[in-house]
Every structure is written in structure tokens, then in C-alpha cells.
Amino acid sequence: MKLQRRLIDLEKIKSLRINQNLTIDDMSKVLGYDGYNAYYYKENGKRKISAEEIAIIAKVLGVPIETLFFENKITDSVIKFKEVI
């Protein structure tokens, strides 16, 4: 059985956060960080977001967790492109 790899849509997370008037600092506090840097790096793709954090982010943003991932067709294309490079 092949595991399906799903990529987090960081732009969607950022857009949803901004549309709900939540700051990076707000999200940092919800995730238990002392400062805003840790969340900033995650939302900008410089650090990985854990499964637990994605679940918390989805809950705070009021969306199903699946909403925070790219569609499968896009994900498969990105993976294939990375394999070519």
C-alpha cells in the first residue's frame, strides 16, 4: 500500500488567518510559543508544521483539516516534478 503524500497549502493558511483578522502573534500564542518567530517560520515554509499543529490551526481557523492541504492532483504533480529535478 502506497502512502499518499500531502502538501500543506501555506498560502491558504496565511490567507485564512488574515481574513479572520488573526495575527502571527495570535497564532503563536495558540500553538504555545513564547514569541511570534516560530509560527512565522512555519507559515513561511522555513520550518515544518507538525500534524498536531495542523489540527490546532484548522480548529482555530474553523475549517476542516483537509482544507489546509493542496488538492491531490497538484500534490502529485509537484512530487513528480521534484523527482525529475
UniProtKB/TrEMBL annotation:
Residues 13-68 form the HTH cro/C1-type domain. SMART domains: HTH_XRE. It holds the Pfam family HTH_3. GO terms for molecular function: DNA binding. It comes from the Bacteria. CDD domains: HTH_XRE. This is HTH cro/C1-type domain-containing protein.
